[in-house]
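W.,

You were right to be curious about this one. When I first looked at the sequence I had no strong expectations either way, so I just let the prediction run and decided to look at it fresh. Below is the sequence, 414 residues in total, followed by the output.
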Amino acid sequence: MKTRYYIIFSMLTLASTLLAQKTVTVYDSNIGKDETMDLPEGMLDVQIDSMMREWNARVYLNYDGTNCFSTGENKTYSPEEYERRLNNLPNVVAMPYNSVVQKFIDQYCERMRRSVSIMLGASNFYTPIFEDALESYGVPLELKYLPIIESALNPGATSRVGAAGLWQFMPTTGKKYGLEVTSLIDERRDPIKASYAAARMLKELYKIFGDWTLVIASYNCGPGNVSKAIKRAGGVKDYWTIYPYLPRETRGYVPAFIAANYIMNYYCEHNICPAEARLPLGTDTIMVTSDLNLETVSQRCNIDLEELKALNPQYRTNRVPGGAKPCVLRMPMDAINAFIEAGDSIYCIPQSNRISASGTGLSGEIGTATDVDPDISRRKNSYSRRRANYTARRSRSYQRSSRSRNSRKAVRRR
């Protein structure tokens, strides 16, 4: 009997813990009492756990902390210091500091320390893609941190309501912005195409509201809900004015975005060590015009099936429906050479002239804009070079911060 009660108590404790990880309680000065908010999808532990099961993360990320000089202890600061740091960020989007923002900063600095370390490592893969997409539409680059709170940089993320991918598009919204969603293809999971679709959507939302903070809120709950909140607030187009009239999750969404900007820039000051990231080998793309089976491609081109799927996350099954319309297949360079040499034998139904174009990507790069549409193809950049520079800058920043802290400690000891 005691054992049974203990099991029931343990289950209730676990359920309570999981619930606490889905919400955050903040003090609302407007109503004079505490308020419970839903955490964004990207701040739920399940997303980080799911991301670490992804092939890219398992192969290219090392998060054991063996190369880190951090003590692993969170360091807290005065409210004035947090406010100063947010004001010093070179951003267009307003980054105000208040008690609500502090609550979300604390989430990243305390409960989600390991998650932040992993996301810092994964950002080396995705940040260059995000920046190119946002830049092409004239969107502020700090919005590259939206996928942090949307998906925790997990390309395989799927929310409880059916949103998918790094940018968490719903099926109807994805189709509106040119992403194909069928039983065989889901381009919401394609990091490149989804990033350009998100940049276009953000730009259109800005044309509606003329305020980037309201754009961020409407990205979460839709422009209709934001417009209703503006009307209920007397027509004032200010996020913190309409804040009480927004859905519960959206009330925490903008503060979470500000906190993500903070922690991705000031992780060193809180003794968080980025997961070590190895850059993937160069890849290229080939256009196919007949059905393919990824298992066959894996065997004939000597490429691991899991790697092949990771490089082509838009395909929901092992079938590439090139027979319906031309489809892009991304592979390492050696595998593409083997694919071409295999000829017709690699296809499900042999026909002639199935390969309509090869090398549509940039040689030696992962993720080029040429796979998206002709307009985007004019904006292509070298992701490999930018990713390497991004990794080097992050490494130097952490080393300088570590040396600075060690120097201050040495001075105090003297």
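Here's what jumped out at me. The first strand starts at residue 23 and ends at 28. And, maybe more interesting for your project: Residues 1-20, 350-385, 408-414 have pLDDT under 50 and may be disordered.

Coffee later to discuss?

I.
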